[in-house]
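Subject: for your reference before the review

Hello V.,

The reviewers asked for a structural picture of the protein, and I figured it would be easier to keep everything in one thread rather than splitting it across files. Below is the amino acid sequence we used in the manuscript, unchanged from the supplementary table.
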Amino acid sequence: MRHSSAFALASSILFLVTATPASAQAVPTVAIVQTATHPAPPPGWKVACMPNAVNGGASPTCPVLQFNGYTYWAWSDDQNGMAMAIVAYDANGVAVKQWNKSGARYVWNVTVDTTAQTVAFVGQANNQAVFSWSDLFIPAVSGALTFVNVGAPAINCVFNIACTVTVTDSLGAISLEPGVSGTAQLQTRTFMGAAGAPGAGLTSYEYRVDMTGASSDGEVPCVTDLAVDFGAVSRLSFDGTGQAYDVYVVTQGAVGTVGLFSVTKTGNVVDFVFNQPVCAGHSGGAGLSSDFIGIASAFVPKTVTANLGWPGTLGLAVAARAPAHPGTLMSVVPKKPVPLKKKPAAKPPHKPVKPH
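And here is what came back from the structure prediction:
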């Protein structure tokens, strides 16, 4: 069974969380749609809708969940493993969030329990992938920062008119639990904005969670978000359109497959939430890496302790670099998401001596 790491978003440049309030649709509903109308599934997954619990043939229709302005499709593992990926799509067919769960495949029904407030994606032999409404609800984000997807080496032009930058890399080791072999790390990359460039005098901070070297035969560890005591954010037009953003994500021309779902700022702490968990693999080199996530500051770097969202724990401390802003102090309320099993595809390692 293979669960691919890549979570392909549509080619839109800007990805902002704009979900309507919960009151817009308080109760999830189920709709039956033509299978041929399905959006693109993430790599490693396929459309596989059955007419009933015992008939393995393909159905011309699929059940989907509609909740708070989003449509949720249930995909099956493309190697026919016992797993489903539930992906929420916006009105434009853009994937905004993904949940993976083992134990069921080949969806034929979706049920909503209004008493327990759960949703069950029912597959072959009536095996189910069950989620609470709160698990699947995509809220508006309080304190949200804007972000834009960019390519490399074009992003370098924001910080140097010659479109080349000299980078400094550092690695913070991520502690792995017993039974997990290999290594995992948080990469921090910094470079200065040169005279004449839009980012002149600023420091760009890029972060990448790298789980490609970690593996486990059992439950695989995953990182859901990264929190950094960053301080004031310097906004720039990272995509060259003239529109200023808080954060950029290097989705083209660099290593990494996992992008952002949202970015929020509470006090001085910036929390980067990935659009799917960044997980170790079931074999060496098969784990996931996030994209490089960039954010600019007027302050020079210093060593800090960042916090990784780690399912089943209060979060993990990891060494990083961040702006030496006045009153730097790490104070993060970690998340407690549900562990997810994945078997992601490998990506070649990024060479830290090169800009991108």
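For the response letter, the relevant points are probably these. The longest strand covers residues 269-279. Residues 75 and 191 are 40 Å apart (CA to CA).

Happy to draft the paragraph if you're swamped.

O.
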